[in-house]
Amino acid sequence: MKDVSVEDLGTAVVQAVLERTEIAPHAIDDVLFAQSYANSETPCIGRWLALNAGLPIDIPGLQIDRRCGGGLQAIVTAAMMVETGAADVVLAGGVESMSRIEYYSTDMRWGARAGTVKLHDRLDRGRERAQPEARFGRISGLIETAENLARDFAISREEADEFAVNSHKKAAAAWAQGKFEDETIALSVPQRRADPVSFRCDEGIRADTSVAALGRLNPIIHGGTVTAANSSQQNDAAAACLVVAEDKLDQLGLEPMAYLRGWTAVGCDPSRMGIGPVRAVEKLFEKTKLGFDDMDLVELNEAFAAQALACLKSWAWNDPARLNVNGSGISLGHPIGATGARIMTTLLHELKRREGRYGLETMCVAGGQGMAAIFERAI
């Protein structure tokens, strides 16, 4: 989808929400969208998408960035707006076109006196500069943070590869069983010398992979555990939903899928950013008086296999029957700003199929944060 712009990705899901809910566009009070790698091509992405999707001009929009947790933050911020009475209906979600993240220069505003002008890769630069170097020292990127956790928790390369293989097998089975059909839309992808292609199914899933096959890959850092195959994929995606005041549901002819029971965000050491979900979930359980035994499903975003395994070991909890049952970042990808909204969508659909009550969503965040939320299925 490298030729599909972020505005087209986001507009497609905004229009799909309008079509599927049949809500009158003028009933929407605000549009909140996360985007972690924003630029001036589509500034203030929430407002931009509202206009591009044909919503009334008087509907405002907002851009949100909590990096990997941005999509979830858009949803909980929308919920807070509704809870305070500031809005009754908010369209919330996230979008990221990682294929089109640009290069940029900080040398050109006042002109370069002589010599070479440096271009930065915004994608890599965002990972390298996720924390102040003066305080924490140089952290080469997120791979280094995952390797730190692999050492801290004695996670082997084989453990990481086995975790990755299971993610792919679960995602492949979910697609084959049609589990994603109700929560996805096809995109029309333009071709240079041919008719547009209808893009419907994730292309990064490897149903036939094995621990032996993954074991043949070289680690990204010499002597480490992290490879391209046991890390999350870089993806282009968008996801969106409606967050609505409960007393407006009947008036708008809407049936809720779930309620936001509680949420948290915490900070942690940037050099071990992947451990962020541990404290975020613990804090959330303290606030809600719930625990893993109450959760019918758990979605822990797979930024890296080593990172996810470190969290599971810290919790002393790992139930494959409830954890990432349809795959996660390693198999489905991690389109940064969209991931939180995508995970929630998959979680709610699976809760409905299982007739479960509570679902937990949690993720680590670049720069040293963790985020978590509990959703309760509407019955």
Automatic annotation (TrEMBL):
<protein>
    <submittedName>
        <fullName>Acetyl-CoA C-acetyltransferase</fullName>
        <ecNumber>2.3.1.9</ecNumber>
    </submittedName>
</protein>
<dbReference type="InterPro" id="IPR016039">
    <property type="entry name" value="Thiolase-like"/>
</dbReference>
<feature type="domain" description="Thiolase C-terminal">
    <location>
        <begin position="255"/>
        <end position="377"/>
    </location>
</feature>
<dbReference type="Pfam" id="PF02803">
    <property type="entry name" value="Thiolase_C"/>
</dbReference>
<feature type="domain" description="Thiolase N-terminal">
    <location>
        <begin position="2"/>
        <end position="247"/>
    </location>
</feature>
<dbReference type="InterPro" id="IPR002155">
    <property type="entry name" value="Thiolase"/>
</dbReference>
<dbReference type="Pfam" id="PF00108">
    <property type="entry name" value="Thiolase_N"/>
</dbReference>
<comment type="similarity">
    <text>Belongs to the thiolase-like superfamily. Thiolase family.</text>
</comment>
<dbReference type="InterPro" id="IPR020617">
    <property type="entry name" value="Thiolase_C"/>
</dbReference>
<dbReference type="InterPro" id="IPR020616">
    <property type="entry name" value="Thiolase_N"/>
</dbReference>
<dbReference type="GO" id="GO:0003985">
    <property type="term" value="F:acetyl-CoA C-acetyltransferase activity"/>
</dbReference>
<keyword id="KW-0808">Transferase</keyword>
<keyword id="KW-0012">Acyltransferase</keyword>
